């Protein structure tokens, strides 16, 4: 299942401290990694969320980045103050060994472009820099495949389209939700208490479809009907579904809704 999600930059509005906000982002990141989300879109829901939007995007990107590249790609900043206590993600490129002897031809690794003595190199997490002759700029992250390990390690850059296994999510920011919906090529589920109750047949239809699926969430204090207004009826290939009809009067936190809905989609896909 090719799954992406869209969340508002006001997603952290129901948390008061940076520690609690960071923990919430960690849960969102972990849910997206567990259920193999391809892209997390963050859309601008309104004014006043600039700091939370930056925090949300920064920690999501940081947690998805392999540990061995974080120092090279992220400067020391207050928004990452609590990053060390957040749950790690179980993504394939996070568990790679730093021992050069463990490298095998055709292995995939994430790399960061770094400058050393006026030249560009690749850091692939083996305590040894590899010369880089491409055009990408410093601190750019790329994916490489090991070409040889002896007598020296050589690599080639590859596209994400050549990676068959799940390799992590991307984080993209957009100025508004309609911008995402109009660009999306595939199916869309808008999650709302005002939507029709989701049926098993509908869920299985989406879960087993070859088309990419975008799962859209509203804000803690404003649902998608409030955010989109009348435009909600103009979006193509879209259904508005309520996945929790028995909890219509209860407050469901974003992270709980994400985990619940993606669990349901995953279950439908496996049956």
Short description:
The chain has helices at 18-34, 50-64, 67-73, 177-183, 200-207, 224-228, 254-269; strands spanning 3-8, 37-43, 108-116, 119-123, 130-131, 141-148, 154-157, 170-174, 187-197, 213-216, 238-242. It is 28% helix and 24% strand.
Main β-sheet, in a few words? 6 strands, parallel
Q: Which structural class should the secondary elements be placed in?
A: alpha/beta
Strand content: 15-25%
Helix content: 25-40%
**Strand tally:** 11
Question: What is the H/E order?
Answer: EHEHHEEEEEEHEHEHEH
Report the end-to-end length measured between terminal Cα atoms: 13 Å
Note poorly predicted spans: none
CATH class of the largest domain: Alpha Beta
**Side-by-side strand order of the widest sheet:** 8-2-1-10-9-11
Shape: globular
How many distinct domains? 2
Keywords:
five-stranded antiparallel β-sheet, alpha/beta, 271 residues, globular, RNA methyltransferase, tRNA_m1G_MTases_N, 11 strands, six-stranded parallel β-sheet
What does this structure look like?
By secondary structure, the protein is α/β, with parallel strands linked by helices. The protein has two domains: 3-89 and 170-270, 3-Layer(aba) Sandwich (Alpha/beta knot), CATH 3.40.1280.10; 100-159, OB fold (Dihydrolipoamide Acetyltransferase, E2P), CATH 2.40.50.140. 28% of the residues lie in helices and 24% in strands. It contains seven helices and eleven strands. It has helices spanning 18-34, 50-64, 67-73, 177-183, 200-207, 224-228, 254-269, and strands at 3-8, 37-43, 108-116, 119-123, 130-131, 141-148, 154-157, 170-174, 187-197, 213-216, 238-242. A six-stranded parallel sheet has the order 8-2-1-10-9-11. The chain has a five-stranded antiparallel sheet with strand order 5-4-3-6-7. The longest helix has 17 residues, at 18-34. The two termini are 13 Å apart. The mean pLDDT is 92. It comes from Candidatus Nitrosotenuis uzonensis. This is RNA methyltransferase.
């Amino acid at each position: 299942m090719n799954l992406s999600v869209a969340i508002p930059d006001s997603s952290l509005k129901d948390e008061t401290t940076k520690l609690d906000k960071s923990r919430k982002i960690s849960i969102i990141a972990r849910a997206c990694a567990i259920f193999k989300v391809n892209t997390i879109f963050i859309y601008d829901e309104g004014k006043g969320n600039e700091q939370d939007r930056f925090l949300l995007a920064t920690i999501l990107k940081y947690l998805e980045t392999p540990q061995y590249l974080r120092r090279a790609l992220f400067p020391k900043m207050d928004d990452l103050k609590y990053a060390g206590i957040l749950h790690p993600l179980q993504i394939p490129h996070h568990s790679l060994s730093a021992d050069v002897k463990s490298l095998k031809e055709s292995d995939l690794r994430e790399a960061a472009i770094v400058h050393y003595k006026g030249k560009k190199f690749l850091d692939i997490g083996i305590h040894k820099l590899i010369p880089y002759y491409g055009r990408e700029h410093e601190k750019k992250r790329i994916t490489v495949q090991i070409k040889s390990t002896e007598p020296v390690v050589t690599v080639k850059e590859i596209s994400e389209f050549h990676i068959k296994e799940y390799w992590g999510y991307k984080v993209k920011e957009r100025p508004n939700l309609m911008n995402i919906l109009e660009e999306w090529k595939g199916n869309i589920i808008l999650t709302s208490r005002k939507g029709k109750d989701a049926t098993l047949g509908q869920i299985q239809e989406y879960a087993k479809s070859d088309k990419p699926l975008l799962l859209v969430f509203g804000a803690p204090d404003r649902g998608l009907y409030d955010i989109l207004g009348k435009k909600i009826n103009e979006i193509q290939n879209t259904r508005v579904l309520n996945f929790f009809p028995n909890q219509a009067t209860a407050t469901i936190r974003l992270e709980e809704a994400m985990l619940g809905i993606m669990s349901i989609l995953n279950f439908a896909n496996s049956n």
